[in-house]
Amino acid sequence: MKRKNLLQSFSASRRELLRRSAALAGGIAAASALPRAALAARENELTVYCWEGYNSDKVLDPFRTEFDCDVRAQGLISDPDAVNQLRAGDTRIWDVINLNNSWGRRQLYPENLIVPLDQERFRPHWDMMLPEFKWPYHWAMSEDGKELLGNIQRFGPSGMNVDTNVISVEMAEDQGYNLILEDDFAGKYAVLKYDDWAIMHTALAAGFSPFRKLTEDEIGRFEQVMRKVITNAAFVSDDMNAIALGVINGSISASFPGSVYTVSTARFDGNPHFTCVVPKNGPAELGGKNGVCWMELTSLVNNPQLSPRGADFLEYVLRPEVCKNVAFAEGTFNPVAQMGDPRVMEQFSTEELDAFQWDRMPELMARCADFDDIPDYPKLHAIFTTALREKGV
Amino acid sequence: MAQATGIVTITPGQSARAAPEPSGWRAWLRQPGVLTALPMALLMLTGFVAPLLLVVAFAFMPPQSFSILQPPTLANFQEIFANSFYRSFLASLYLAAATTLICMVVCYPVAYAMVRVFGRVAGVLALLITAPLFVADNLRLVGWMLFLVKGGVLSGALQAWFGIATDSMLYTVSATLFGLVYTYLPFMLFPMIMGIAMVPLEMREAAFDLGATRWQVLKEVDIPLAMPGILIGALMTFILAAGALSEPRILGGSSVVMIAQDIQNEFTFAQNWPKGSALSVLMILVAGVLAVTLLRRIDLDGIFGRR
Amino acid sequence: MVTTEAAAQPILQLRAIEKVFDQFAAVDRITLDIQEGEFFTIVGPSGSGKTTMVRMLVGMDKPTRGDILLRGRRINDVPANRRPTCMVFQSLALFPHRTVGQNIEFPLKIRGVDPALRKKRALELLAQLRLPDHYYNKAVTQCSGGERQRVALARALAFDPEILFFDEPLSALDYKLRKVLEKELKDIHRQTGKTFVYITHSLEEAMVMSDRIGVMNRGRFVQVGTPNEIYGSPTTRFVSEFMGEVNILDVTVGPDGTATDDVTGARYLVPASAGAGPCSLVIRPESLRFVAGPGQAQNVVTGTVYNEYLLGSRVQYQIRVGEKQVLLLENLRDQRYEGDLDSPVTAGWDTGDSMIFPKGLLQ
């Protein structure tokens, strides 16, 4: 689960802000050096458009030094936004793009916005992967299975987050999203306003998969559940820290939806009772899966003047110590697919592993369907925003 | 002959003026006023008018599309009117009006004191009031969130010092309103200060001398004469507050959805630029109509005392 | 002249009033009585303290020391809005957001007078000040300078004050309009019979309107008297100089009572009032006249006509005497000088038309 908008990216924390300002200053400095770099035929410059983490100095600085390269990185604010920008011609600006799993295979590659990777160079790195991401991994390959479209690194499961001091993990797993929908539970949870995730989980709570066309009846059922979810919520926020704060001070005991991504920093800060749960007994059409997991795909943009450093960067982030820095970026902590390699595993302490619930990760992932296109998204999103607007009455 | 050459040297300047104006727009362009206004005009055109036109154009494009080169349609507006968007408009207008009213009441005494009472301290005070503006409003609002949240600064202090247990003061309409008042206070205060400073001291003395009490001076002279400043402040506060985004999100927990949130939603999560544009156009219309009627109500020339 | 006959008690009495700002006495222990119905003018240059004084008299400032008595009652601490006096400001201070009618009615509205009565009174005042009825609804900002003066006066009269103060209300107007309004003001004074206290920096204005004039300098009255007294026998050089353009010659009066010009060495007969020593000899331009030769006037000087200024009904001439002395001579227009500029000329004056003051007296 990802940060989804610009404003939110300013509201996280002070450290976050400082880091962003530094990145911005770096960006400006890099931009001012651009004309010079352009003369050098882009040998010494690189642009990265990514979810937060890859744009942290912890990740970028060693690369800048080692490759004597100006790196300009910008955090993106939503998958569709970024895709639409590439469609609008921003392929000339970026070298590296980092998006959630389904976009590369379904849209970017068919629309010629990204270029396949050199398999000879990258295939060996797939040996580092966890079992569920073994070669040839579905989301990294083109539809015909011939081309490698990018590397998979960070990933995470999503269900709901609960305060285990109030609700036991077993109870949450067994009762599932019905727990939230109980009238007794009104005012005891917050809705995490990452719109597409709220929509996917509401569909799951309503008992069907969001990843196909829905019938009129299903949409009616979706609306019913969505209105209840919104009306009964204590508050709606796109700030995971505000929600964590609510759980810590006891004013709420759950977050819907909730994911390892949004709970890991609070856990690392000494609140292990705040936990991500993926309920059992999901819709049969998803094989009983009742959560959604995301995997990030990092690809090379179809830039007419693609920097040769792009592929270097893709390889660089697979180094064990960089894997750790990507996983433990400031603001959010997530597992990475390269944790199948002991050299990567040994980078993490027990506390760090516990922050992203590593011990339960296989179980959580097993209960999640892969993030995918939502065919009825415009309709469902309209229902979501209408429910929000009409919450008052 | 010496005289003749003298005349010849003078002629260029004279003939330029005497000769029939060369094709209209050239002469027009040559005016110093037009020349000096040119950079500003260009800036306004590219930076203000062009994006606005783009938004207007997008408002008439088919839903969920990303190009303005399609046959225009009213579908977005139909969809907006068929849906409950009026609620966000009403919420925005109501909250903006309440914010404006509260800001007026709070700011007037402060502004008055800064103009008439504090003297030199007023400069320091103004600086203190503007200082927070150097910090992004989102960050300041997060500060307020930490202040107001249960177990935060305020409830923690109440608990520790007075043993009063309080629940969260966040995520309500009142919290939203508080955030709006806090954020937009300076936009009311400074025009108001200018308005009050514009009231000639003699005007007040004259009223006082003619027997008016303090209250009557306030009612009959101070407020009417400071009205341009008050109205400009009110207009700015109202329009800014009506377009507020962060306050209902961060402090209000979306307990009430304001129109800017809907617009932002359409542009980002919904990826429905035409509908977002249509909502923007409607909001601009509402704000524009309001501004025009308000400014027309008062005869600015009359108030400024054009003599 | 509307002078007092029986006013046993002056309407306004100033008892050694003093206003000190930062150890500087803007008004320095002034004692003065103003009679009921009098038109009293305080005249002085800017910075002389006249505005400070009137602000104390209307109640906008308090005296540092001394008392102000209104009909014998001490009013030092009564604020302006509770005094039965009011003022026409230099800026007029008309309310720009109100119509002419609303401005005039303002003091009545403040008192809660019934709207119909207010309007009746406002229309009366418009008529009294020779403004047409339809001005009642006119915006003040659309009135001309003279009309605005009348509106301001009407507003003050609507207040029905016991004393009406004026703080240089005509100073912003052109000469011709000022002359008209000076006379109108005097008419109004007669019609209403109220006590007027008027402040101006123009002695000429004071002369036209006043019953009595107080000439102020450096926070004190230099001379208080009727216009005739002030014009005819100014007691100091300051007063005479203040009356407008005058010729001032630095002279030394000898033991025989005649004066020697410090610049040209010429000898003049002077009035006997001054003692021996350095003095200022003051001659008004209109007291100087062209003469055919010595003997045609008690004192004569010879010089050249350097310039001629036409002043409407009168003509002024600049006469250069030697290298350093310049005298002004004023004639009626029908007595214009016929000769060429720069040609030699003799001018003279009679001793009785000149004034002599010891040097250094209140310069």
Describe this structure as you would to a colleague.
The complex is a heterotrimer of chains A (393), B (307) and C (363). Chain A has 393 residues and is of the alpha/beta class. Chain A folds into two domains: 6-155 and 295-357, D-Maltodextrin-Binding Protein, domain 2 (3-Layer(aba) Sandwich), CATH 3.40.190.10; 156-291 and 370-392, D-Maltodextrin-Binding Protein, domain 2 (3-Layer(aba) Sandwich). Helix content of chain A is 42%, strand content 16%. Chain A has 19 helices and eleven strands. In chain A, strands 1, 2, 3, 4, 5, 6, 7, 8, 9, 10 and 11 form an eleven-stranded mixed sheet that branches. In chain A, strand 1 (45-50), helix 4 (57-67) and strand 2 (70-75) form a beta-alpha-beta unit. The longest helix of chain A has 19 residues, at 14-32. The model of chain A is unreliable at 1-18 and 32-40 (pLDDT under 50). The longest helix of chain B has 33 residues, at 85-117. Chain B starts with a helix and ends with a helix. Mean pLDDT of chain B is 84; it is low at 1-19. Chain B is globular, with a radius of gyration of 27 Å. Chain B has a single domain (84-304), classed as MetI-like fold (Orthogonal Bundle). Chain B has helices at residues 2-18, 24-30, 32-59, 75-82, 85-117, 121-130, 137-148, 153-162, 173-197, 201-209, 214-242, 246-251, 259-267, 273-297, 300-304. With 307 residues, chain B is an all-alpha fold. Chain C is α+β, with helices and mostly antiparallel strands and 363 residues long. Chain C has two domains: 12-236, 3-Layer(aba) Sandwich (Rossmann fold); 245-358, OB fold (Dihydrolipoamide Acetyltransferase, E2P) (Beta Barrel). Chain C has eight helices and 20 strands. Chain C has helices at 50-58, 100-110, 115-128, 145-159, 175-192, 203-209, 227-232, 237-242; strands at residues 12-21, 24-34, 39-43, 65-70, 73-74, 85-88, 163-167, 195-200, 212-217, 220-225, 247-253, 258-261, 267-269, 277-283, 289-290, 299-311, 314-321, 325-332, 344-349, 354-358. A six-stranded mixed sheet of chain C has the order 6-7-8-3-9-10, sandwiched between helices. In chain C, helix 5 links the parallel strand 7 and strand 8. The two termini of chain C are 32 Å apart. The relative contact order of chain C is 0.11. Mean pLDDT of chain C is 87; it is low at 1-7. Chains A and B meet through helix 1, helix 5, strand 7, helix 12 and helix 19 of A and helix 5, helix 7, helix 12 and helix 13 of B.
